[in-house]
Amino acid sequence: MTIPGSVGPERLDRWIEEGGVIVTTGQQPGLLGGPLYALYKGISAVRLAERLESLLARPVLPVFWVASEDHDWEEADHAYVIDTANELIRLQVQDPGHMKRALHRIPLGAEIVDVVEQAAQNLPTTDFSAPYLDELRKAYKPGVTLADGFTDLLSSLLAPLGMCFADAASPAVKKLSGPLLLEELGQAEAHEVLLREDADKLESAGYSPQVPILEGAVNLFLEGPEGRERIYRNGNNFELRRSHQSLSTDAVRKSAESDPLTLSPNVLLRPVVESTIFPVVSYVAGPGETAYYAQIKRLFQAYGLMMPVIYPRHAVTVIEAKVRKKLDKFGLDPESLKRPLHEIMSDMARDDMPDDVRQALGKLESDVTLGSAGLLKAVTSIDPTLKGPVTSARNTALSAFQAAERKIMQSVKRENEVASNQVEVAQRHLFPEGQPQERILAPLYYLVRYGSEFVESLVERFAVDLGEETE
Q1: What is the per-residue pLDDT across 413-448, written as a single tens digit (0 to 9) for each?
Q2: Which residues share a beta bridge with 227?
Q3: How far apart, in whole angstroms, are the C-alpha atoms of residue 173 and residue 175?
Q4: Would you tell me how many other CB atoms lie within 10 Å of the CB of residue 454?
Q5: Which residues contact 153 (CB under 8 A, 6 or more apart)?
Q6: I need a labelling partner for 32 at 20 to 30 A (CA). Which of 94, 110, 132, 339 fits?
């Protein structure tokens, strides 16, 4: 395995001279470097670029697109770590009240210092922790944005592997993408028609479109009176979704010319913007992104572009030795921890119930069922109306035994309280908040415990198999 180091002038010159191409991936910025899967996306892109460079015999650069134009503060303002007592800790920056403005517009206040220190206090002190906490403090500080902090922290992990970063709101990106955004304004109705046709085809094939095609909606956002607002067609003019401000085509153009940051693409147009700026050969996507790429092939074609090949990002479940020990102790597999804890413990209690108790309960229920069947047959020959009382008596008896079984199981559960606590800890590590760990936990949790070896092991595991034939 040969992963290129940080991209320097020589590699960039070679990339230009030899007609290099690019592998992209991307993510909305978030607190503490975002969830684990942001790191997984980056490493997947690095490994794919490395493999394609060998296959295509030309330079291939991995580029991480930081979606800083996103305005969903509530999705980006928090992160989770697990503390030294194995408790899940939510860290959050309070909403500064910027009314749905793009994340790159919102500077962090003094509160970020306390949030970072709270993270540091809840993570263990190890041989590896100091450098990562220093990077965290350097990345997230008053005056910077969540996008700045996210980029700085993630680049400290990925840039040494050869990853480049592109901020969606950077002056260079906005300058290069501006003409396409204005062209989209004029093609809004035609592009809505083709996107709707493809969405209808997906539905006819039994799939639900990942991104709904809304009537009159343009694939653009404009910063208006209520923050970043979706543009809608309104006759010969346009209208902003939340504020209902009416704008002419010239007004939108003048706004973009005055400040290019005011106009930005939606999720369907963003990949087209990327391929307009960069020679993108492949995009490393998560499951949701893979789904919406299925909707936009003809949007690429409308701009004379070929859609990149979609490569699914790698996904792993990190099982530490202390968690593996608990799984082995109770005979559980990781997937079984997806279920609610009470269901897991009920199954364990049922398995732990003494054999003589289980057999006695089974015999009682069997005897009642068989005995009542015999009685039912006998009494119906005397009087058919007796079927109801006998059936009711049988059901009452069975219900009583089932209630007794539940009480016995509850007693077994109480005896297994320690086991319940241990299973809950394992579940908190693998499925915190009922979600896969990669969608919840910040990378820092593992970095401070295992150092660079954590990233190195991911690089090693994220091998790329393109299925090409070998002799």
Answers
A1: 555 677 888 999 999 999 999 999 999 999 999 999
A2: 224
A3: 5
A4: 19
A5: 32, 33, 135, 136, 139, 140
A6: 339
Three-class secondary structure of residue 284 per DSSP: strand
Per the CB < 8 A criterion, the answer to whether 308 and 283 are in contact is yes
| Contact predicate 176/277, CB 8 Å | yes
What is the three-class DSSP state of 29?
A: coil
**How many Cα atoms within 13 Å fall on the side-chain side of residue 264?**
27
| Between 417 and 303, the higher pLDDT residue | 303
Which value, to the nearest 10 degrees, does the dihedral of the CA atoms of residues 256, 259, 260, 265 take?
-70
Helix, strand or coil, per DSSP, at residue 466: coil
What local confidence, expressed as pLDDT, does residue 52 receive?
A: 96
How do 78-82 and 227-234 pair as beta strands? Answer: unpaired
Asked whether the CA dihedral 429, 430, 435, 439 is positive or negative, the reply is positive
The token pair at 154 is: 């993630």
Which residue type does 362 have?
A: G
Q: Which amino acid is it at 355?
A: D
Q: Helix, strand or coil for residue 451? A: coil
Ramachandran area for residue 245 (φ above 0: left; ψ -120 to 50: alpha; else beta): beta
- Residue spans of the domains in the chain: they are 171-312, 321-435
Residue 272 · residue 296 · CB < 8 Å: yes
Q: Residue 396 and residue 263: Cα distance in Å, rounded?
A: 69
